[in-house]
Amino acid sequence: MAHNYETMYILRPDLGEDQLAQVVTKYQNMLQEQGATQLEVQNRGKRRLAYEIARYREGIYVQMNYQAPGSVIAQLERAMRLSEEVIRYLTIKQEVMETVDAQQSLAEEAVVS
């Protein structure tokens, strides 16, 4: 069963535009090959880090939102862990709020009836 996920990762700030595009495309293709759908990639740009990570004070933030089976996450995170370009990553499972709101409104209608 596919769930909605958000992966945010931070790349080294010394990557050039070509290298940046190459890394983003690599992870995008990896997700698509593993069956991810509704893939959205947002480059958040270079930002100052709250604390030093791997001797870097800045990093390039990239956010990916997608729908995929849970088995894809382990493969993606393993690739990021082994990559020299990625200095930090985090994947969270997103809850679908629309269905919760719809269920609550149906429950309220049932109580009123």
C-alpha-based Rg, rounded: 18 Å
Largest sheet: 4 strands, antiparallel
Structural class: alpha+beta
Question: Helix and strand string, N-terminal first?
Answer: EHEEHEH
Shape assignment? elongated
Helix content: 25-40%
| CATH T-level fold name | Alpha-Beta Plaits
**End-to-end gap:** 34 Å
Helical stretch tally: 3
Q: Uncertain segments of ≥5 residues (pLDDT<50)? A: none
Count of separate structural domains = 1
CATH superfamily annotation: Ribosomal protein S6/Translation elongation factor EF1B
* Major β-sheet strand ordering: 2-3-1-4
Count the strands? 4
Round the mean pLDDT to the nearest integer and report it.
90
Strand content: 35-45%
CATH class type: Alpha Beta
CATH architecture: 2-Layer Sandwich
InterPro entries: Ribosomal_bS6, Ribosomal_bS6_CS, Ribosomal_bS6_sf, Ribosomal_S6_plastid/chlpt, Transl_elong_EF1B/ribsomal_bS6
Pfam family, one: Ribosomal_S6
Family: Belongs to the bacterial ribosomal protein bS6 family.
Keywords: Ribonucleoprotein, Ribosomal protein, RNA-binding, rRNA-binding
What this model shows, in words?
With 113 residues, the protein is an alpha+beta fold. It has a single domain (2-112), classed as 2-Layer Sandwich (Alpha-Beta Plaits). It is built from three helices and four strands; from the N terminus they run βαββαβα. It has helices at 17-33, 71-82, 97-112, and strands spanning 2-11, 37-53, 56-69, 86-94. A four-stranded antiparallel β-sheet has the order 2-3-1-4, with helices on one face. The protein is elongated. The two termini are 34 Å apart. The mean pLDDT is 90. GO terms for molecular function: small ribosomal subunit rRNA binding; structural constituent of ribosome.
